[in-house]
Write a structure and sequence with these properties.
The complex is a heterodimer of chains A (about 300) and B (about 400). Chain A is an alpha/beta fold and about 300 residues long. In chain A, about 40% of the residues lie in helices and about 15% in strands. Chain A has an eight-stranded parallel β-barrel with strand order 1-2-3-4-6-7-8-9, surrounded by six helices. Classes of the chains: A alpha/beta (about 300), B alpha/beta (about 400).
Chain lengths: ~300, ~400
């Protein structure tokens, strides 16, 4: 049932995060059930001279950083696409590409088509608070034959996140191609980090308000396992940027793949690995019956739901 | 009985039985557990006050003969990395603590065979002589048992002597899981059995000291054993009423012999919530933001916690095992207020001392905790030579030093 503006305003000022979380969880479960996707992302520097580490476990190879020029962007995409094989390649912030197009004196679509021709599949992220014209730029991405990997927020410190979430909902009604929205800011102020209540409320409100966006995403490497796991219980259904390096030096149970699965299961949810195209690459495996004796968390289930 | 029936029982203030608690812990959805725990908290603390204390967690020695396999902090007797803090160093730490509004030292350490009971008595008297109003929350039950064995005196006598020297209260460390099967597996059965740990607390309460209780979960125990731990604490609290608070945290596996993985954030919130529900005779539950981080630490306030623990100036034990979170007073107060509660400073007895001291950031945000001893500093405190060596290694070291002195 749609939530009225008055109800949303009440939720936004409420301290009852458990109730807000429950409401968001209902929306999430109606759409996804207990299924929780995650993607392993290899991050590669935008500099064409930087090494490209082949990580076959990655579901997405993501070129990060600001390209120095149109030629450098195209060259880097070509290099990474060649190394990636069948792994989808994402690159750059749409806001940076807007600026690059202006600096190069070309249209954004021309730049996007060049990048696609070089092997790019996905624009890595579109920070809604940094885009000059979010609707038009995202439509250009679509027209150029590219896919937007994630809609993000760069640095929203507003105490009332509702306005930006409403803008996301409006944007999605117009473009219809936003597959995942990450409502927690990418840029974290180390001197005044967001609180747990702020983060949980943001995730929950994003799920409730932007109900036409399929997935609400949380960044594993940026927000850490504990907060990311809690976010999955209050509306998020997708975990971004899990490490593709399955480092087992601290033992197999502490390796990233096992850690993400354990965290999702311990939240009473089902882990499903996807790639950057949102294709399932590793179907859900029947959860072992976990007990706290395994050190992996209480073996609660959600039968009482 | 269904989850809803058990929940109704909790909401009406009835005590839950073991099997009901297990059903809730295993099967109740996390938000349901949170709401139940929050309703118990609100009943006990209707004013919405969340407390915290400014104190310093000092580990006077890391030399320990207990050798628990979940501990990354201890060093064996004779280790080059072993240390004992001198009285002057401890006084300096107290001065620093008082300067930022601190009221107490949480003093715990390894089971060092070369520190006799008289060392503790002299230390406590020296501290109380210099800082009469400053509180000593010191020596967890296994340390008291260690002193009892070392000096061949009954636990009650040890407590009486320490109290006479200035001990104000006893921290609940070393409880881990109060089930002997688990304690044997963790190699901590020898330092204190479950009964011995509880008996130290019983004796302390009888002697008029208040204490806290703790639980470290997430190693080898089962859900039933976590609940058995809580039920044993509840039974002793019924008997003595001496516990002021309960604190639980997850095992921190880094650099430990036991290894393994850390329990998840959701598991922490569920465990905290079930503790709030089961421990219906405990007034205060602390949030362990040191192990869970500030964010989940703050979320604990929605899952039954009413206390943010200590404004941490120093912490060494869980830090050695991988936990590295730090919040100063400004940060703790901001987290409490952001969650809709009223922050209030307290002492160890949970008496409210007043509003926050540092509203603005008058002191720089501490990005890194102080540590027990500066790296590379390896001097042996002069006063240690006043006490007889007991370990073979320290006796040999003393003998060598005496030979050097003579030549």
């Amino acid at each position: 049932m749609p939530v009225s503006d008055a109800e949303l305003a009440l939720l936004a000022v409420s301290h009852d995060i458990v109730s807000i979380g429950m409401q968001a969880d209902e929306v999430r479960r109606a759409r996804h059930g207990t299924r929780t996707t995650f993607v392993r992302v290899a991050q590669i520097a935008a500099d064409p001279g930087a090494p490209i580490l082949a990580l076959p476990a990655a579901g997405e190879m993501c070129i990060t950083g600001t390209p120095a020029s149109r030629a450098a962007a195209i060259e880097r995409v070509r290099q990474v696409a060649t190394a990636a094989g069948n792994i989808p390649v994402s690159a750059f912030s749409l806001a940076d590409l807007e600026q690059l197009a202006v600096a190069e004196g070309i249209g954004l679509r021309v730049l996007l088509e060049d990048l696609r021709a070089a092997g790019l599949e996905l624009i890595a992220d579109a920070p809604i608070d940094r885009l000059r014209d979010a609707r038009r730029s995202i439509e250009e991405v679509n027209i150029a034959g590219l896919v937007l990997a994630r809609l993000t927020i760069h640095q929203d410190r507003s105490p009332d996140p509702l306005s930006v979430f409403k803008a996301v909902a409006t944007l999605q009604r117009a473009v219809g191609v936003v597959r995942a929205f990450a409502p927690l800011p990418r840029a974290i102020d180390a001197a005044r980090p967001t609180t747990g209540y702020e983060d949980v409320k943001r995730v929950a409100l994003a799920r409730i308000v932007a109900d036409s966006v399929p997935s609400i995403q949380v960044d594993w490497s940026l927000y850490g396992p504990k907060l990311a796991q809690v976010a999955l219980t209050v509306g998020a259904d997708d975990v971004d940027r899990v490490s593709p390096e399955d480092d087992q030096t601290a033992g197999p149970r502490r390796a990233p793949l096992e850690e993400i699965r354990r965290n999702i299961r311990a939240a009473g949810l089902e882990p499903v690995e996807r790639n950057g195209r949102f294709d399932i690459v590793r179907p859900f495996e029947s959860p072992r019956v976990m007990s706290s004796a395994a050190g992996g968390g209480a073996a609660h289930d959600e039968r009482a739901r | 009985m269904s989850i809803e029936q058990i929940a109704a029982k909790v909401r009406s203030g009835e005590r839950v039985r073991a099997e009901e608690a297990l059903d809730l812990y295993r099967h109740a959805p996390t938000p349901v557990l949170g709401r139940l725990a929050d309703s118990v908290r609100a009943r006990k603390h209707p004013g919405g006050i969340v407390t915290y204390i400014i104190d310093r967690n000092v580990n006077y020695t890391n030399v320990c003969v207990a050798k628990c396999n979940f501990c990354a902090f201890y060093r064996p007797v004779g280790s080059a990395e072993g240390y004992v803090l001198g009285f002057e160093e401890l006084f300096r730490k107290i001065d620093e603590t008082i300067a930022v509004g601190g009221v107490q030292l949480l003093l715990q350490g390894g089971h060092n065979p070369d520190l006799p009971l008289t060392w503790y008595e002299d230390l406590f008297r020296a501290i109380k002589g210099r800082y009469p109003a400053f509180k000593l929350h010191a020596l967890s039950p296994p340390e008291v048992i260690h002193l009892s064995r070392l000096s061949q005196l009954p636990v009650a006598d040890i407590i009486d002597r320490l109290k006479a020297a200035g001990l104000d209260s006893i921290p609940g460390g070393g409880a881990e899981i109060l089930v002997d099967r688990v304690r044997r597996l963790l190699h901590c059965y020898g330092k204190a059995t479950a009964d011995e740990w509880l008996d130290v607390m019983r004796q302390a309460h009888r002697a008029g000291l208040r204490t806290t209780a703790t639980m470290m979960y997430g190693t080898v125990e089962t859900d039933e054993e976590r609940l058995e731990h809580l039920l044993r604490l509840r039974a002793l609290q019924d008997e003595t009423g001496g516990f002021t608070a309960f604190i639980t945290w997850s095992y921190q596996p880094s650099h430990t012999e036991l290894g393994g993985v850390e329990a998840t954030g959701v598991d922490y919130l569920r465990t905290l919530a079930i503790a709030r529900i089961v421990l219906d005779n405990f007034d205060n539950l602390q949030a362990s933001w040191v192990t869970q981080g500030g964010k989940v630490g703050q979320l604990s306030l929605a899952y039954g916690a009413n206390d943010m623990g200590s404004v941490m100036i120093e912490e060494n034990v869980v830090r050695a095992a991988g936990a590295a979170y730090c919040m100063d007073e400004v940060e703790i107060v901001r987290n409490i207020e952001d969650a809709g509660f009223v922050p209030m400073r307290r002492n160890m007895h949970y008496e409210q001392l007043g509003d926050p001291m540092f509203r603005q950031r008058d002191v720089p945000r501490m990005l890194e905790l102080a540590t027990a001893r500066a790296a590379g500093e390896a001097t042996i405190p002069a006063e240690l030579r006043l006490y007889p060596a007991r370990s073979r290694l320290l006796k040999a070291q003393r003998s060598s030093l005496e030979s050097q002195d003579k030549t």
